[in-house]
Structures are given as structure tokens and as C-alpha cells.
Amino acid sequence: MRSRDVADWILQYAHERTGADSISNMQLQKLVFLAESCFGSLYGTSLVNEPIQAWDHGPAIKPMYGQFKSNGDRPIPTPETRVSVPEDVAEVLESVWDNFGHLSGWDLRNLTHDVGPYSAHFVPQVRDIEIPKEEIHQAWSDFLTEGCRVSGRLSRAERARMSALMDFEGSTFEADAGFDADQIMADYHAFART
Question: Which of 32, 50, 72, 149 is the most buried (most CB within 10 A)?
């Protein structure tokens, strides 16, 4: 798929799901990068057909950056034309948004600097260095674990597991009360096998 289609779908979903109209180019770049990592991890193939490069502020897709750079650091408007993607792609993009959409562009920048293959390929002030997609795909579980740890948020699988275990007679669940990164990863791997 074109990265622009993935980006437009994320913009539409974010707007419909949360009313978000404040996604920056940096945030969108990192969300599409994370979607590539998740999709490749699950399906063993690339989601976007353009190369992902190691730029100063993290992973970037050059054509997509060019399409949105006129916005600067201002939010990117929600596309008016509805983008349709296959169901398996939609599920991945929903998961990426649910796990990382609440993070700012700078938070995502820092995450992708600290976790995954970016730092092994980055050379200061040089742009056209490609990050191998296989390495991006292999890093998904690390991104998911670190993203959940940093934000204190639970994945959809972990929330479902906690809901099933809760006593619904007036008890409440606090996000950090039962946080278990190992269980999140076990749930992720179980999902990946189905």
C-alpha cells in the first residue's frame, strides 16, 4: 500500500474514534512506521511499499513527509475522501492507534529512537539511509512492550483479560494495578498465531 493511504486511514480513524484533529507530520510518520512493524510482524510482509529511512528525528517515509510538510508542525487536516483498507490492515491500524495514538510526536520520536532498528542505521545529517523492513518487523514486540510500559496503558488484549478477571460487584480497575508486560506479550503472541 502507499504510505499516504495508511496515513489517511489513521487520520480518519483518529478523528472518528477520539475526535482527534491534532496529528502532526512527526506523529503520523511514527504511527505509520509502527503500523509497518506490527503488520510485518504478524504477516511477514510489508504494509507500505515505500522505503522507511533514518532521519534526524527518527524513522521517516520521504514521499509521505513531502505530502504533509507544508503543514509544518501544525495538525494535518482529516481527509475528506474516505480511505478503504482490507480488514487485516484495519485491525493492525486500529491496534497501533489504540496503543500509541495518545502519544505526542515527540514521545513517539523518543520511543522510535530508543527501541528498534533506527539507531543502528542513523547517520547525523544524512537522510537517504534505509532501515531494512525485516528489522522493523522484528522490533514490534519491543515497541509494544515499551510503549505500554512508558504510557502505563494496557493493550486491548490485556484490558479484555483484566475485564474477564474482574469482580463486577462494585470493584474498579486502575490501569497500573495489574500491569504485566509479560502477559501483554503472551496475549500478543497468541493473537499473532490465530
Answer: 32
